[in-house]
Write a structure and sequence with these properties.
Elements lengths: L8 E12 L2 E10 L7 E4 L2 E4 L11 H19 L4 H12 L3 E2 L3 E3 L2 E7 L7 E6 L6 E4 L10 E8 L5 E8 L5 E7 L4 E10 L5 E3 L2 E6 L17 E6 L8 E4 L8 E6 L5 E7 L6 E6 L8 E4 L6 E7 L2 E6 L7 E5 L10 E4 L5 E8 L2 E8 L2 E8 L4 E4 L7 E6 L6 E8 L2 E9 L4 E6 L10 E9 L5 E9 L10 E4 L16 H6 L3 E5 L9 H5 L7 H16 L8 E6 L1 H12 L6 E5 L18 H4 L5 H10 L13 E7 L8 H13 L6 E6 L10 H19 L6
Parallel strand pairs: 36-37, 36-38, 38-39, 39-40, 40-41
Antiparallel strand pairs: 1-2, 3-4, 5-7, 6-7, 7-8, 8-9, 10-11, 11-12, 12-13, 14-15, 15-16, 16-17, 18-19, 19-20, 20-21, 22-23, 23-24, 24-25, 26-27, 27-28, 28-29, 30-31, 31-32, 32-33, 34-35, 35-37
Helix pairs in contact: 2-10
Length: 709
């Protein structure tokens, strides 16, 4: 059956609300007609309709016409908001300050990314030593006219001569690798294509990387990614000559990542079936003819090689230790009974370990904020590093045998500041401090613990101006994620300042499904336990209302990716609780998510509709399938992008079309579809500001708030 979309508009029951002399004036919004088809699937005897299945074809003319029509409706609505330009200009003013990412060193070189303020992409610099004069190594802004080409992975050869770097175009996960001579800044002729979910790991005159076969023409952004393979590329040779190092034809839905130790003694291979849990293999590169040996089998636990100490490997793992421990493994006798525990498990989560000088630096998380301790190589505690405040270590970069390491520190009102730490002097020195037009002293951050539906205590950060009056009338933005063992810790966001400046209260709960309290906390929000995540978020909203921070008329919720699923599930379960909903690049069709690109890898958190028990669980909360006829849903702005090949835009397309068709009141339901952008990484500054201006304009407008700045 040929799908036909009618782009002529019809009058919907939704209205645009404007303020005139404090009275609401309604203007009709005309949505495009989204054609329905007679498509349904039967799962274990249950028939499920999917009338907008045709929107999954992201390259069809019909879908293209629908996208154009929806964007016109959205742009027309946003253009009528009287303070949209004002918010945009304020965001530009706030954004225009220098920003730096945490440097890393390799031999005599120090590398870092820096943005002067409004550059679309951060520029990569290199200098000799900590005090050297920086020079531009690579400026991604020269790679495209509109800033939509981004530089992703950077990997320096162990001799410090070459750097391999990847580029991503228009936000896609697909990457191309190039190689540059660091001393001259000249590119070599090498070019690697169809790389995804991989870095470059050097050995001698080449590097290991992972890739997929070239996808079907026209399906690059939607085809399922299968048969991940590891190759070795030798400098100066074409990609067609690259040596296949590892593949597994028996398991197409597994991922493989290769890395070498700093001294190139070992090649480490990690095999995974999803986003958590992996098998670990290693190969002795010094011994000719050596083969991979398995260090840790199965996918129940996580194993991350930090580096080697002689002929043994330092491994961070949660096997038998949900909050993780550091162990030393001998590849000749890798059974867990033979492991030597270097840093035992504590009640706090051990997030990572970095070697620098002759010491180890361990980053811990306690109640979603960081602590750092140094140990000798035998695991003896040496000291705790003094951090500026309670907050987050943005990144720790060190090098074995080098006495200087770099780290960044940030919090909600503390922009990322870079420090060096001298291992011998045991002292931190400020390396880079940003200056911007924002008075942090006027704001405060608190952490509260509230009860979820099952009485579990959930922590939540609350940020607002000092002197906030708890009268139930404050605009609140509640942000969440709750999945994939990802922890939400205090972080600085330029765009959030617009909300805070105008009396907004920003709230961030640490939901189950994340990693804030180790693997048990993560598992408590996965598969059949996924409803816990939504209950935690809904309970956060109820707490904020009961404590008179806000009311349902002033409460907005937002989240992206898995957080977009969170928003979609909560707004369909408790629509009366929220005024504005902002689901971004969300996983909205829980019955079909695993059929696109890398979606199959999320089954460890979600389960799939291929299993009877999991199907019934997914159907209960899948946002797309729980939109009901004639229910009044909150004002909703769905955001996605045409090049998102992580969470394909069909999720958002079908969700928005369904919500528009079934909306039972005058609250607007809009979808904003960015072009030449993807899941979020590498998005140029100009596009970020445009999107944030639209989001905050929509939020304030539908709350009836006129921004002061």
């Amino acid at each position: 059956m040929k799908t036909i979309i009618v782009v002529a508009a019809i009058t919907a029951s939704t209205a645009m609300i404007s303020c005139k002399n404090n009275k609401l004036v309604q203007e009709k919004i005309n949505y495009p007609v989204t054609n329905k088809v007679a498509q349904s699937d039967t799962y274990f005897g249950t028939q499920v309709a999917d009338p907008y299945r045709w929107l999954e074809n992201d390259t069809s003319a019909e879908t293209g016409a629908w996208v154009k029509a929806e964007n016109k409706v959205t742009n027309d609505y946003l253009a009528k908001i009287p303070f949209r330009d004002q918010i945009h200009k304020r965001l530009e003013a706030l954004w225009d300050f220098p920003k730096m990412e945490v440097p890393f060193s390799k031999g005599e070189w120090v590398f870092f990314r820096k943005n002067d303020g409004m550059q679309n992409q951060s520029v990569i610099y290199v200098q000799k030593g900590v005090t050297g004069e920086p020079r531009v190594l690579l400026d991604p802004n020269t790679l495209s006219d509109d800033g939509t080409v981004a530089v992703g992975d950077l990997s320096v050869s162990h001799d410090g001569k070459y750097i391999a770097y990847s580029i991503n175009k228009a936000g896609s996960d697909w990457a191309e690798f190039f190689v540059m001579d660091i001393a001259t800044g000249k590119n070599l002729p090498d070019k690697i294509e169809w790389v995804k979910f991989s870095g470059a790991s050097w050995q001698g005159d080449g590097f290991y990387y992972s890739r997929y076969d070239a996808p079907t023409n026209g399906k690059e952004l939607s085809n399922r990614n299968e048969y991940h393979k590891v190759y070795f590329h030798k400098l100066g040779t074409p990609q067609s000559d690259d040596k296949l190092i590892f593949e597994n034809r028996n398991f197409p839905l597994r991922s493989y990542y290769a890395g070498t130790t700093e001294d190139e003694h070992f090649l480490i291979l990690s095999e995974s079936e999803g986003t958590s849990g992996n098998s670990l293999f290693c190969k002795d590169l010094i011994k000719k003819g050596s083969q991979f040996v398995i260090l840790a089998p199965g996918f129940e636990n996580e194993y991350n090689v930090i580096d080697n100490i002689g002929d043994k490997l330092l491994v961070l793992t949660n096997e038998g230790s949900p909050c993780r421990k550091l162990v030393l493994i001998d590849p000749k006798s890798p059974a867990s009974a033979n492991w030597k525990v270097i840093i035992p498990e504590k009640t706090e989560v051990l997030e990572g370990v970095v070697l620098a000088g002759n010491q180890m630096f361990a980053q811990y998380m306690k109640d979603a904020t960081n602590r750092v301790y140094s140990y000798d190589l035998e695991g003896k505690l040496l000291q705790e590093l003094q951090l500026p405040a309670l907050g987050t270590i943005a990144r720790f970069n060190g090098e074995k045998g080098v006495n200087t390491l770099f780290y960044g520190f940030t919090s909600f009102t503390f922009p990322t500041t870079i420090y060096t730490f001298d291992v011998t002097k045991k002292a931190s020195i400020e390396f880079f401090k940003p200056e911007l037009d924002f008075d942090a002293s006027a704001y405060e951050t608190k952490q509260v613990f509230y009860e979820s539906k099952d009485k579990t205590k959930i922590p939540m950060f609350i940020v607002h101006k000092k002197g906030l009056v708890l009268d139930g009338n404050n605009p609140v933005l509640l942000y969440g994620y709750g999945g994939f063992n990802i922890s939400l810790t205090p972080n600085f966001s330029v765009s959030r300042l617009v909300f805070l400046e105008n009396g907004g209260v920003y709230c961030m709960p640490n939901l189950r499904g994340g990693g804030e309290y180790g693997e048990k906390w993560h598992e408590a929000g996965t598969k059949l336990n996924k409803q816990n995540v939504f209950d935690d978020f809904i309970a956060a909203a109820e707490y904020l209302i009961s404590e008179k921070y806000t009311s349902p008329e002033k409460l907005a919720i937002s989240g992206g990716s898995n957080g977009g699923l969170l928003i979609g599930a909560c707004m369909t379960q408790r629509p009366e609780l929220f005024k504005v909903c902002l689901p971004a690049v969300g996983v909205m069709d829980m019955l079909r998510y695993h059929k696109f690109t890398i979606g199959w890898a999320w089954a460890g958190d979600y389960g799939t509709s291929d299993d009877s028990t999991q199907f019934h669980n997914l159907l209960k909360y899948s946002p797309l399938h729980n939109i009901k006829d004639n229910v009044c849903y909150p004002a909703t702005l769905v955001t996605t992008a045409d090049h998102d090949d992580r969470v394909v835009p069909a999720h958002s397309f079908k969700f928005a079309a369904t919500l528009q068709a079934k909306q039972g009141c005058d609250n607007p339901v809009l979808i904003r579809i960015e072009t030449k952008a993807g899941h979020g990484a590498g998005k140029p500054t100009a596009k970020i500001i445009d999107e944030m201006a639209d989001m905050y304009s929509f939020l304030f407008y539908n709350m009836g708030i006129k921004p002061k700045k």
